[in-house]
Amino acid sequence: MRRALEEDIFAGTLKPGDRLDEQSLAHRFEVSRTPVREALRQLSASGLVEVRPRQGAVVSVITLPRLVEMFEVMAELEAMCARLAARRMSDKERADLKRFVDECEDFEKKTDLEGYYAANKVFHDAIYDGSHNEVLADMTRSLHRRTAPYRRHQLNRPGRISESLSEHKEVVDAILAYDADQAGRLMARHVNVQGDVFTDFISTLPTGYVA
């Protein structure tokens, strides 16, 4: 149940600010309210859900300063993954990474937002794994999941999919060239949201996504 609710949040089916009614969830999953409360408790501990007085559980809404901080940390973690991947990826992992970015390009050509988002996750996961540092990969995935609803909506900005694909290709070129420093710089730039780009990004978020 917890995993299913996580996926709903990450996919945008449940949006920040949406109320999570225990009785409705118990009916949906055909369970008593006790496991529902436990799932909500676990989601609250991870920061995906918050419990509000007299409102019950709702999908967390992040403040703008907090969102900026999360993207800053995310950029550094992903940059470290890219640096290590450039040094440590096997030949097969490098070939797979190239294939994954080609799959991203297929969805970009079709302007398939959902397909691109799924392929984008596979691409980033390959770099996390390619770092061959499980602690780093776990930390990065954890924050990636936390920012997933916001990263997803970043792709709504006109032209962003094409920009994202171009940035992917630059990162891959650096990794394939074993250029760790360049791979890290390019990945940090790819993930971080700054200046006018951040303003455009915020404009794509539905009302209630940030406070």
UniProtKB/TrEMBL annotation:
PANTHER family: TRANSCRIPTIONAL REGULATOR, GNTR FAMILY (PTHR43537), TRANSCRIPTIONAL REGULATORY PROTEIN (PTHR43537:SF49)
A single MF term (Gene Ontology): DNA binding
InterPro entries linked to this entry: GntR_C, TF_FadR/GntR_C, Tscrpt_reg_HTH_GntR, WH-like_DNA-bd_sf, WH_DNA-bd_sf
DNA-binding recorded as keyword: yes
Ranges for domain HTH gntR-type: 1-62
Pfam families assigned: FCD (PF07729), GntR (PF00392)
Keywords (A to Z) from UniProt: DNA-binding, Transcription, Transcription regulation
Species this chain originates from: Caenispirillum salinarum AK4
Protein name (database record): Putative GntR-family transcription regulator
